[in-house]
Amino acid sequence: MILALTWYNLVRPNPLYMKRLIIWIWIPVLLLASCNNNQEDELVPLTGTWHFQLMPENQPMLPFTGTLEEKDKFYTFIIKNGNEEIVVEQVILKGDALRMRMPVFESVFEGKLLSEGRWEGIWRDPSRGPNYQIPFVATYGEKSRFENMSTHVVVDSMYEVSFSPDTEDYYPAIGLFRQEGAKVVGTFLTETGDYRYLEGGLQGNKLSLSAFDGSHAFIFEATVEENGDLNGKFFSGNHWKEPWVGKPNPEAKLAEPDKLTYLKDGYEGVSFTFPNASGDSVSFPSARYEGKAVIVQLLGSWCPNCMDETRLFARWYESYNEQGLEIIGLAFERQPQMFQAFQAINYMKNSLGVDYEILLASNSTSKKTAAEKLPMLNKVIAYPTSIFIDKKGKIRAIHAGFNGPATGRLYDEYVGKYEKLVQNMLNE
């Protein structure tokens, strides 16, 4: 009888028990449904063309475009500047937070997806300081880099250019522009390097060109005068602006880049000792480099012209190292601590596929400091600067600056001239 009553109490319908049972059954079901709804509502950026606007303080907005691609939930963004394509593989989406770290340089985009076709946030460049940042807005869809491009003006020419004319900051340059309709691409070549790939166009008689590569955030504006002259301003990020003028001149020339830096009287060669990433001191000359052809490269991981030269030198090192070519990079960095500097150097090396040694010469980018570190040179006026040394330790050439691939024919001439020099040194 007792067993029967116990069994009845356990199995009989109990309103309170049944109510609790129903609640415990439905809680996981409701949670699962809620999770599914959140997944369905999660923002996903549209793939295709995006138009960015960097908005520096008290400067013109700086536009650039790119393409977002997705494969197996991994995103890639390809920034386009003229003929240049920069592939950004570190694109991370978490909820509505989107982060994109540029290759080679330390800069990052951080922000929120406000919709599948709009992204707002901040571009940060720690190499310029912990608080260096510029707001940005990115929108989805095909759009011209600059709006309302239309003109009858022609700027398809070579220009003799002066930056900061009639001031102590003056420096000469050559403007190289190619025009198709209202669209214009080109660059400025200076005695210390070029301004890489610029893209933009004409709105009536107003010329606008911009570039963004992770370090450079450049915009050039100019009015095309009736006589064809250019009267403009150059803006870099939110930290620099200066005037510039240009006159059409197909014969424009700059000082020879292999005559600006040279060995002082009384010195027979280059010598130095600097640490590598392992903390070991590396010296030149030394037994390691005896009987080798050597290129000593002065550079910085923050320097876009150095990036272009390093890509070329990495190819040369791969092709000629077994034949006796050595390359030593001497880095002049912005970071105050050694470990921070080598983090930036190693990130650059990994991004560019560099296998040769890069030493830390200084935690300063000052060209005066560079000259002090290498007192056998008369001066250092440019990053990069490259010193070509033959098997006997004799300096065969010192080249200040670098004509990058954006300069077209000038880049090809540089590659032809100095690769031939490398081959001659190896064959001696």
Structural account:
- This protein is an alpha+beta fold.
- 22% of the residues lie in helices and 39% in strands.
- It is built from 6 helices and 24 strands.
- The strands form 4 sheets. It has an 8-stranded antiparallel β-barrel. The protein has an 8-stranded antiparallel beta barrel with strand order 9-10-11-13-14-15-16-17. Strands 22-21-20-23-24 form a 5-stranded mixed β-sheet.
- Strand 18 (272-275) and strand 19 form a beta hairpin.
- The chain is globular.
- The model is unreliable at 1-40 (pLDDT under 50).
Silhouette: globular
The main β sheet shows up as: 8 strands, antiparallel, barrel
Please name the CATH architecture of the largest domain: 3-Layer(aba) Sandwich
Euclidean distance between termini CA atoms: 112 Å
Over the alpha carbons, how many angstroms does the gyration radius reach? 29 Å
* Helical percentage: 10-25%
Structural class by secondary-structure content:
alpha+beta
Give the overall pLDDT as a whole number: 90
Q: What are the segments in which pLDDT stays under 50 over at least 5 consecutive residues?
A: 1-40
Number of helices: 6
- Integer count of domains: 3
Order of secondary-structure elements: HHEEEEEEEEEEEEEEEEEEEEHEHEHEEH
**What is the β-strand count?**
24
CATH class membership of the largest domain: Alpha Beta
Classified in CATH, the superfamily of the largest domain is: Glutaredoxin
